Amino acid sequence: MLQRIRDVLSSPAVRLLVYFAVVxxxxxxxxxxxxxxxxxxxxxxxxxxxxxxxxxxFEGSAPALPSPSVMETLITAFILLLAGLALAAPVVWIYMxxxxxxxxxxxxxxxxxxxPVVVAGVVQVVRGDLALAFALAGIVAAVRFRTTVKDLQNxxxxxxxIGIGLAAGSGSLLLAGALSVTVCFxxxxxxxxxxxxxxxxxxxxxxGVPLSEALVPxxxxxxxxxxxxAAAEPVHAADLEPLAxxxxxxxxFVAADALRRKKKYDMLLLAYTDRLVExxxxxxxxxxxxxxxxxxxxxxxRSAPGSLALVYLVRLKKDVEVGQMILRLGCGEGEILKAVxxxxxxxxxxxxx
Length: 353
What we know:
Blueprint (H helix, E strand, L loop, with lengths): L1 H8 L2 H20 L3 H7 L9 H9 L10 H29 L7 H21 L3 H13 L9 H18 L3 H20 L18 H5 L8 E4 L9 H4 L3 H14 L9 E7 L2 H15 E11 L6 E9 L5 H8 L9 E6 L4 H4 L1
């Protein structure tokens, strides 16, 4: 019971609730004794230039806005900038939580942390000044940003940080808080519910599929099977649910390998045998000779008594001949390896992760 309570308290959802409760309490404590700060939580709506003010600005007769004191300007600016940072911090944290398996760049996390503060500061600079707004647009147009976003999730989080900065800079702290809460819990729910993940289907369109297709769900092209077809027994609907753990393990290996810049694994190798120790020794010797990198991922028990499937991720050498490697493995009835199943993995990395 105590362990279950600890797990609940340490979950990201509970931490987010506690954090937002603390931020809300601080904002209320600041707003109660200060009417001008309480009014900044939800701006009255007349801070920017309306249609009439816009026409007046072009004619050079824009009405003069009341100038706040220097101290009030500094205090308001610092509070809005810090509020933008405080409301963007949970978005940055939940981004690291949901992206930890796929991997993320530290530079993007740092950018995500500072972006709301910069945007809030820019909004404070151009607020109510049409000339500065047009000048800023010209400066941004002159500076060309050529960085491409590799993952659409990164773009969504970046837009969220910009939105929080815009709301905080314009004084709409309640709107910035609502955006932060919505983005955090939506991203957490999508990640927790595994929305968009490829899952093993419990209903097959045909009688069965090879084991490699079951381990990489959603892929239709068939692998190359060498040796005894009886040993490479197809996987049926009843076998898929027990394979879920093996599918997740393979996906974890591929996700970790995806963080490498070069020489990623490019082939999935399944070896069917009933002589485990001898098979592992044979495969290790052949792969040491023909592969740059390789790793054993799993050992899967098949339906036939004593029958096993050894799962490997392999990156072959450039000049290796696959036929020579197959001959060295010596697949067939009466051999150490009854069958071998080969499938390229280069184009399947996104499906696995």
